Amino acid sequence: MIPHQQMMHRITAICLKDPPEIMSVLRQVIFCHGSVLLINGEMPRGQALKLAQEAGSTALLYGSLSEPVQFLSDSTVIDTPSLLQFSSGTTGTPKIIRRSWQQVEREIANYNARLSSNSSEVPIILVPVSHSFGLITGVLAALERKAQPVIVTDKNPKFAAHVIQSTRESIVYGVPYLFHILLSVMRNERAFHKIISSGAPFTGKVFDTVKARSELVIQQYGCSELGCISLGFDPATHADVGTPLQHLEVTVDGHAESPDEIIVMMDGSPVFTRDLGWINSAGRIQVEGRIDDLINVSGQKVIPYEVEQVLLGMEEIQEVVVYRTKHKVWGEAVKAMIVGTSSLSSELAKQWCIEHLPQYKIPSAFDIVEEIPRAASGKISRKWLSENY
């Protein structure tokens, strides 16, 4: 491990696969008043090294703690001990996000106050602890309320299903795609006690199925700069992410027919989320998509999620993602990638859209595939699809 004096006011980059090892390093660095750059444990060594250098790290811990520490030159001195992470990069180049440990502690306190969970409910973490969702609101928040989290790293959904079904009272942390997979292997009528979903909205029939087979569904909304912004208990729709945590204030100028950018205030400073949404009459935030994902068809804006919901109304369609493509005349056009039954065809999908959408929102092309490409986290990057398909 790294000597204590080299941790103080320095950045230690960790790209480890074993969650207990990650937590061990975190505790030691925090104790030494140091800072941590968290890198996904699945990252190739060369890319992890590049990210560590970009952040000005003193050292890189890669793979496991049994491997030698790689010390780096030109390291950065940090005055305030902090947690550093790279943004997901799903809509642009990843950037370094820095949050002080004091800010993280405040998020945890307000998160637990809103969640109102007791130590008897076991958090089951199905997402990487190299991400804020899994680490801060999953593991660290659980430990603060004296609950012992279970971190599942086995990729087999049947293993995760066994853990969930053998735990009487649990809160399962996951992304919509994981819950979709779990529902296919969990045969009992009531699959989950409580779930917390984040990272992307539920799509199509999955939302209704998850609600029907869970005692309580909570949709969590956040961003890299702030961590968790809001919790939506028993959401009415896929877009409903509830009310903000006590230390945050959310403002949106838009409404249901014309959503606008969600702006979050913390300590008098605004964070522009680049998310589109509105606030309903009950004061609950409704997230409709990303500004960066908007498709400009001859000056008319198309929200991809709106088109996806229409397509998911077809019985033959199981999954769909809508993204922008180039067009010689319009500049940009709508394109859809679809997973469906054997009876599905591009002609059927287009006819359905003609019947349910205005002309400019109808996809110019339909790609029928066996599987939609996803990142290791289960997220879909519309930007990546636009550039590669």
Global shape: globular
Percent of residues in helices: 25-40%
Give the helix tally: 11
Termini, distance in Å?
44 Å
CATH architecture of the largest domain, by name, is 3-Layer(aba) Sandwich
Mean pLDDT: 91
At the fold tier of CATH, the topology name of the largest domain is Rossmann fold
Residues in β-strands, percent? 25-35%
CATH level-four homologous superfamily name of the largest domain: ANL, N-terminal domain
Number of strands: 22
Using the CA coordinates, give the radius of gyration: 22 Å
CATH classification, class level of the largest domain: Alpha Beta
Spatial sequence of strands, sheet with the most strands: 8-7-9-10-11-12-13
Main sheet characteristics: 7 strands, mixed
> Can you tell me the number of structural domains?
3
Low-pLDDT segments, ≥5 res: none
Instruction: Determine the structural class based on helices, strands and strand pairing.
Output: alpha/beta
Keywords: Ligase
InterPro entries: AMP-bd_C (IPR025110), AMP-bd_C_sf (IPR045851), AMP-binding_CS (IPR020845), AMP-dep_synth/lig_dom (IPR000873), ANL_N_sf (IPR042099)
Protein name: Acyl-CoA synthetase
Organism: Paenibacillus aceti
Fold and architecture overview:
By secondary structure, the chain is of the alpha/beta class. It folds into three domains: 7-83, no CATH class; 102-291, ANL, N-terminal domain (Rossmann fold, 3-Layer(aba) Sandwich), CATH 3.40.50; 294-388, GMP Synthetase, Chain A, domain 3, CATH 3.30.300.30. It is built from eleven helices and 22 strands. The strands form five sheets. Strands 8-7-9-10-11-12-13 form a seven-stranded mixed beta sheet, sandwiched between helices. A six-stranded mixed beta sheet has the order 4-3-1-2-5-6, with helices on both faces. It has a four-stranded antiparallel beta sheet with strand order 14-15-16-17. Strand 9 (170-174), helix 7 and strand 10 (192-197) form a beta-alpha-beta unit. The chain is globular, with a radius of gyration of 22 Å. The N and C termini lie far apart (44 Å). The model has no long low-confidence stretch (mean pLDDT 91). InterPro entries: AMP-bd_C, AMP-bd_C_sf, AMP-binding_CS, AMP-dep_synth/lig_dom, ANL_N_sf. Belongs to the ATP-dependent AMP-binding enzyme family.
